[in-house]
Design goal:
The protein is mostly helical. It has a domain of 41 residues. The chain has 3 helices and 2 strands; from the N terminus they run H-H-E-E-H. It has a two-stranded antiparallel sheet. The termini are far apart.
Length: 118
């Protein structure tokens, strides 16, 4: 083994260390690009999580809600009729009430209070 320095012919532009300017530019560009990619991935993750929460929790249509919506829809299509309620003992509670579907009630109100010019 020899401790003598190697004397190889130098090529033009050959240097032991790279130039400082381009090294800084590449380093900063890499750091900025890394931060942008990480932030983009974080935003994609939280957007997906928010959409999943919306689907699973907020917009859940429970069976009870579906039954209630169907009952409301059928009540709107029902014919006008009289109702009278009783309590648990079978005693009449309150007066008779006329139940009219909303479409029929709307027409009655238009005929009664809707002016001829409207």
């Amino acid at each position: 083994m020899s401790n003598e320095p190697h004397h190889e012919p130098k090529l033009s532009g050959d240097a032991e260390d790279p130039a400082g300017g381009p090294t800084w530019v590449v380093g900063l560009a890499g750091a900025v690009l890394t931060v942008v990619v990480v932030l983009a991935m974080i935003s994609v993750y939280y957007a997906a999580e928010r959409a999943e929460t919306q689907d699973k929790v907020v917009s859940v249509r429970s069976q009870e809600a579906e039954i209630r919506r169907e009952a409301d829809r059928l009540a709107l299509m029902d014919e006008p009729h009289w109702e009278q309620w009783t309590d648990a003992d079978g005693v009449l509670a309150g007066e008779r009430t006329l139940v009219v579907p909303i479409d029929t009630a709307r027409e009655i109100v238009k005929k009664k209070w809707g002016g001829s010019g409207h």
